[in-house]
Amino acid sequence: MGKFETSEDHAGRWHRPVCVPIGKADVFASALEMVEDLARWSVQSVDKDGLSATCARDNGPLRGTSTIVVRVEGPDGIPNSQTHCSSQSSGGLLSRDKSNVAEFVQKLWMRVT
Predict the structure, then answer these.
(1) pLDDT at residue number 97
(2) Which pLDDT tens digits describe the chain residue by residue (113 residues)?
(3) DSSP at 83
(4) Is the pTM of this model over 0.85?
(5) How far apart are CA 12 and CA 28, in angstroms?
(6) Please, which residues have CB within 8 angstroms of residue 5's CB and are 6 or more apart in sequence?
(7) Looking at the domain that runs over 3-112, which CATH code has it been given?
(8) Do the beta carbons of residue 98 and residue 8 sit within 8 Å?
């Protein structure tokens, strides 16, 4: 079982939060729409007030399933947001958490910039 989450401390571009000058509600809507388009990803629950979503990703027989949490933060009324992503795997021999986060961050960044 592994875990990985975005952080400003990570050196890799796709392992940091996505910071864009767009309102947090709009970024959250884009993130949810994008997850629905990703292969093997599914939305499990959504907290529209807290701007967070819990998703699942089927990683295949050796890598099990990952639970991915997407969370958007930012000030109200100001077009500025920061999107965080974390992945935690279970039920597999190998972890794919770092790749899950990088996949989400890269595709979200391309969508909102």
Answers:
(1) 92
(2) 689 999 999 999 999 999 999 999 999 999 999 999 999 999 999 999 999 999 999 887 777 889 999 999 999 999 999 999 999 988 777 788 999 999 999 999 999 99
(3) E
(4) yes
(5) 23
(6) 84, 85, 86, 87, 101
(7) 3.30.530.20
(8) no
For 64, 75, 79, 87, the CA distances from 102, given in Å and listed in that order, are 18, 25, 24, 10
Place of tokens 């077009």: 79
Lookup: tokens for 61: 């027989």
Q: Find, among 58, 60, 65, 53, the residue nearest to 28 by Cα.
A: 53
Residue in 112, 103, 61 with CA at minimum distance from that of residue 85: 103
Q: Measure the CA–CA gap between 9 and 45, rounded to whole angstroms.
A: 28
- Which amino acid is located at 88 in the chain? Q
